[in-house]
Amino acid sequence: MQEHRQAGGALQGCKVVDLSRVLGGPYCTQILGDHGAEVFKVEPPSGDETRGWGPPFRDGTASYFIGVNRNKHGLSLDLSSEPGQAFLEAMLADADVLVENFKPGTLEKWGLGPDVLQRRYPRLVHCRISGFGADGPLGGLPGYDACAQALCGLMSVNGTPDGDATRVGLPVVDMVTGLNAALAILLAIHERQRSGMGQFLDITLFDCAISLLHPHAANYFMSGKVPQRTGNAHPNICPYDTFPAADGDIFLAVGNNRQFAQLMDQLGQPGVARDERFIDNADRLVNRDALKEILIGLLARHSASGLAQTLLEHGVPAAPVLNVEQLMQHPHTRHRGMVLEEGSYRAIASPIKLSRTPASLRRLPPEFGADTARIARQLELDFT
User: Which GO terms label this protein's molecular function in UniProt (predicted)?
Assistant: First the structure.
């Protein structure tokens, strides 16, 4: 992402009304905003609750909010009131996209359900992010990332074999839901060029969590066996695990026989690749414990970062296990422009690199309700 403010972007001219809070929706709309969409983030009078999800805080706003709300105008509206609803409808009159993550039935209660909005604004792409959708056995119930991880099998395959089912250490379901929502919006905008019509997008944490279960679901469908926790090891590939090195941990992800042979060459033990116990991946899986013992002995002599670099240069997938600080200071992180900085603002930049229309920083995350009065004047609304 460019580290200076610039106009343009692939979505320039696209107007997005963002009624979402917390993570999935805001992450989706930040993606759109980074690439040029004009995003109007509407918070309730109490604010997006992530403003208070700290410490750390800066000027009273938590880092959690700051991390997913750049490139947005900031408004505060009480959408349960008639003036708030009138303000919303004035914004929707020329909007391309509406993103919301209300509990299903909330907009309907206000007389602004998907059917009503589609009649009034036929070109509108309306994206609803919810826990489970509006109907079915769990329809209408609230959804949360960690609960989705538990319910949808992610925790069951995460953790060590002798340990407890473990939450993935980041809100992976919320974030992949935001990604899928952004993808769905772009698909619908593309289709609208042909049909002239918007549509309703039903994106749920439940569905998106299930979609992450590869290869565990594929293994289950074929074998009938319930997948188990394997720690950092892979259920289908060996060696594919974390190993201790002289100065830290190294991860090896050896996916074929050529890579395994090259690994053993670089470790000075080419004969191991010819050992009948380790001839191919199926053999290595059967004899994974014996192979792990050999690798631990060999890797103990090497620096994790140095060996990983050497292995990569020889086509063997490997990486040192870094913490967040080490990653942010890594020279390739800087080279790829993945730390976005302006003044005291620092954040992860957009990973989506376009050659002619790159992502850009145009607006810092908004102060609460900072743009409400200005937008009201632009819409010629008498709103106080």
Answer: CoA-transferase activity
Residues with catalytic annotation?
A: 174
| Integer Cα distance of 334 and 336 in angstroms | 5
Write the single-letter amino acid at 114: P
The residue with tokens 């410490």 is: 55
Among 94, 123, 248, 103, CA closest to 189 = 123
Q: What are phi and psi of 43, to 5 degrees?
A: -105, 150
The letter for the amino acid at 145 is: D
d(CA 363, CA 34): 9
Question: What is the model's pTM?
Answer: 0.93
Q: What b-and-e string marks burial along 246-265, b requiring 16 or more CB atoms within 10 Å of the CB?
A: eeebbbbebbeeebbbbbbe
Closest to 114 (Cα-Cα) out of 103, 101, 128: 128
Domains in the chain, start-ordered, CATH in brackets? 15-212+335-378 (3.40.50.10540), 240-323 (3.30.1540.10)
The tens-digit pLDDT sequence of the chain (384 residues) is 444 455 689 999 999 999 999 999 999 999 999 999 999 999 999 999 999 999 999 999 999 999 999 999 999 999 999 999 999 999 999 999 999 999 999 999 999 999 999 999 999 999 999 999 999 999 999 999 999 999 999 999 999 999 999 999 999 999 999 999 999 999 999 999 999 999 999 999 999 999 999 999 999 999 999 999 999 999 899 999 999 999 999 999 999 999 999 999 999 999 999 999 999 999 999 999 999 999 999 999 999 999 999 999 999 999 999 999 999 999 999 999 999 999 999 999 999 999 999 999 999 999 999 999 999 999 989 866
**Residues 304/250, Cβ–Cβ less than 8 Å:** yes
Examine residue 122 and say whether the peptide bond preceding it is cis (omega within 30 degrees of 0).
no
Nearest to 321 by CA among 335, 307, 340: 307
